[in-house]
Amino acid sequence: MTTRRAILAGGLTLGLARLLGAQDSLAGRGATGTLRDPGAAGRPRDPSTARDNDPFIYTVEHRIKCQCGCNLDVYTCRTTDFTCTFSPALHKEVLALHDEGKDADEIVAAFVAKYGEKILMAPPKEGFNWAGYLFPGIAITLAGIAIGLSLTLIHLIGIPVTNLSVNPARSTGPAVFVGGWALGQLWLFWVAPILGAALAGGFYAWLGGESDQG
Known about the structure:
By secondary structure, the chain is mainly alpha-helical. The protein has helices at about 1-25, 55-60, 75-80, 85-100, 105-115, 130-160, 170-180, 180-214; strands at about 30, 35. It has three domains: about 50-120, Helicase, Ruva Protein, domain 3 (Orthogonal Bundle), CATH 1.10.8; about 130-160; about 165-214.
């Protein structure tokens, strides 16, 4: 029995030693443990320096978009996604341009000249791009003016005719208090808006159907 136990113990020890030796030879295994996917740690990077986090550098890089498809700025991408190869390269370009004595606007302009406006986190406020900033505000302002003038016209026309009953709720309140003839006419002030809305919806659907066919 002693011999069998010794043989089994020796065989088990040898097997474990071989297994551990094989595992130790694998990439991602060391004294601190085993990393199942060494690639998840990203590619080797140069050691960070104080310049990499310089306020001027990260201010510029916040204006430049990484081209790896993450839609993040260069600084955010290079400090959070360690698998990206684009942001470190763009960072080196920023540093090189800064070494040439260029200021922030000149560095950004150099990137635009090389990569186009797609490199920018926000479009420049000039030329056609001004329309993107101004048109929504102008459209909202004009819409407000149009609505206000329409209500003014409704007031001018409606007060002498119906005392400005412009919606069913506005019609129902006075009719309840007046009673009699007011309640007798109340149905029209409910049916007319509903019928008008139904006709408008049908007309819109008809226009949409024609557009889809075209």
